[in-house]
Amino acid sequence: MGWPVSGSHPRPAIGCLGGHNGGELGAGTCTPPYSWRRIARHAPTFSSRNCTVKRRDFALRTLPALTAFGLVACGQPSAEAAGNGNGGLTSKAVYDLAATGNGFTTGPVMAANTMYVFFDTTCPHCAHLWASAKPLQGKLKIVWMPVAYLRPQSLTQGAAILSAANPAAAMEENETLLLARKGGISVPGDLPEAALAKVKANTEILRKLQAESVPLIVFRNGKSGVFGKTEGALETGQLAEMTGV
Questions:
Q1: DSSP one-letter string for 145-174
Q2: Number of Cα atoms under 13 Å in the Cβ half of residue 113
Q3: Considering its fold, how many domains does the chain have in total?
Q4: How far is CA 121 from the centre of its chain?
Q5: DSSP bridge partners of 115
Q6: Of the residues 39, 126, 180, 185, which has the maximum number of CB atoms within 10 A of its CB?
Q7: Domain-located, residue 6
Q8: Which residues are paired to 228 by β-bridges?
């Protein structure tokens, strides 16, 4: 699925798909041509036309009603990494590590419940998640952290959002342009080095969390207190149920 981008960078074959090619986006994930874990296990590369319906374990093993959502992913095999898929970290340690990332916040600043989202500016499913989260802004605090994961411009566009006077407005502009297949926001020529460093640091955290795709959501259920993570866009109701708001 080819998404137009700004600039003259070559466009790698990114697996980025919802329920079908082309039209309306459903829940799904975006993956680069080779993810860190795929390289490590020498897994075959799938084209963007090959889709796998995956069930992501949220580490909510004590909450049967929320143990898994069906997500559509492309460009990656369905087998999970050995262990819990958290690089040997507990779910609480994963949440604490995600909290060290750099992002901007939507929702109540003093909310007791915080969800962390690692997103790429060129990922349409991240844009879908952004839209799904809007109805929950009154009760769910979300920290949005850009990563340089899919394409060369992901780094500079992510830094542009973080360094904007109003990051949420810059994010809204980027996601709107992305879904309109217009490549996302324009990048100023004087990006602060600190903003670029923050995106790089977020990307390193994503690697430590052994994510295979974006968006990556790390959360704590406000009702059960259980921690978990999942990859892929979700609908508003799923987000509310997952986070217990």
A1: EE---SSTHHHHHHHHHHHSSSHHHHHHHH
A2: 21
A3: 1
A4: 10
A5: 142
A6: 126
A7: no
A8: 219
Asked if residue 10 belongs to a domain, the reply is no
Within a domain: 7: no
The model's pLDDT over 136-158, given as tens digits with 9 standing for 90+, comes to 999 999 999 999 999 999 999 99
Q: How far apart are the first and last CA of the chain?
A: 34
What are the start-end ranges of the E strands in the chain? 15-17, 29-31, 51-57, 68-74, 104-106, 114-119, 141-146, 216-220, 227-231
Query: For the chain, how many residues are written?
Result: 245
Q: Phi, psi (5° rounding) for residue 105?
A: -110, 140
Task: State pTM to two decimals.
Answer: 0.74
CATH number at residue 25: 3.40.30.10
Tens digit of each residue's pLDDT (9 = 90 or more) over 182-201: 999 999 999 999 999 999 99
List C-alpha distances in Å: 237 to 26, 66, 75, 151: 14, 12, 27, 30
Is the residue at 99 inside a domain? yes
